[in-house]
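Take a specimen:
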Amino acid sequence: MPVHLTLAFRRIIYSCFILAFLIAAPLVVFYAMGYRYSFLKEKIERTGVLIVSFSPADARLTLNGTVPDMQRDGNVAHIANLLPGIYTITLSADGYQPLTRIVSIAPNQSSVYKYLTLFPENPQPVLLQQGVFTALTMQGETLILTSQTATSSQIVFTDARYNAPQRFFIPETASTTPMVIPMGYGRWSAVQFATGALYVLDRQEGRVLELAALHTTSAVWMPDTVNPELFALEDGYLTRYTFDQNSMPIAMDRTRTLQTLTHLQRTIYGITLPEDTGTVELIQWQPQQKTWEKVLDLPFSQGYAFAETAKSFLTILDTANTILYLVTAAPTKPPELFHISPRVDGVFWYADGAQLLTHNEFEIAHLAFLETFGTQAYERTILRVSTPVTNVLLHPLATHLLFAQNNSLTIASLEDQPVPDIISYAHFDSLTAFVVHPTKEALLVIGTLHGIQGLYEVPLAMKK
């Protein structure tokens, strides 16, 4: 016979179900919202999320020494439900140097760590071309090399593998390496010598044009012009060269003597020579009126030079005292002058022109610009070294610095770690200069290895 539950017993069962629901439902909701019990802190805390992107994509990832429960999509790992605290990430892959990072997890937040990069173990430089080169520049996918003899200078245009080189010989030599000033879209390049001589190379016609024999101190191309225009200072005066059938110079202004030129946002800027009154001016060229207009007064100095520009900033180095100044040229407000830091040998911009790195032979500092709350500069030292560094470059992913130290390629992390990772990467007998390969997976190096001088390729990633 079937057993029928009494009404009272059924009410007890229903009450238990309701009570279980009332207890479990909040727990499920709070669990879904990311709350977990921390046995270490003996309390309930809301968890956070860790998102890591890395290279190579097949790298192994551990968290505090164990493989975490995570979702992976190519080179991105997504680790959820982590209690707040400090964790240690380790990335490893066959043939690569392992990488360890200290990461912080905050409640109800996603902590994102981008572009954690592993570098190959024992990278082997590959000789691309034997020869004595003195400088190299990368313009897009075109490699520009310079070499010199006692009677002439050679400029070579080629690709990153030194295929089909195009050579130009200039009957000019100097104690210092000539400066090659390529134009943005390829056909024309200017070559400036320390003697003051100025030449232009026409890659399409294979011609060498001598523009000025002496006294050229500075030259810049005006970008994005239909007809190429080269602005140069000759004896301190502005001269514009246009390249038509005759390639004739056009004197633009003979009223102001300048010490240097640059351009920003299609505007030519110059710095005047010190006047008897003790003033130095930053001025800009007005093409319609064909006159100079004063922007602001600079502190008195015997010498200034423009450094790399980006966005709406002019970067000016005081060559006497190596002091860096930043001038905002935004049209919505008057220019401002920032005195940033003493002892600056070089600068470069990154983060799409929003942040700046300054360096000298013993120290690398970082400057951030917060335009949301007004333009402000905050300086912090990233790296101090005991032996001099040269040829400071930024890794293509803006995660590491690349520089030469004791004839070795050296890599230093830019990430905010207690002690930056410094890797002595590839060793040479002597090292002159290097640039990043256009594929961003190698460096092109001028140096000497095992007694052989030439152009070398050093991998930043394993060959696929």
User: Anything to note?
Assistant: The chain has one helix and 41 strands. The mean pLDDT is 80. Residues 136 and 278 are 39 Å apart (CA to CA). The first strand starts at residue 35 and ends at 38.
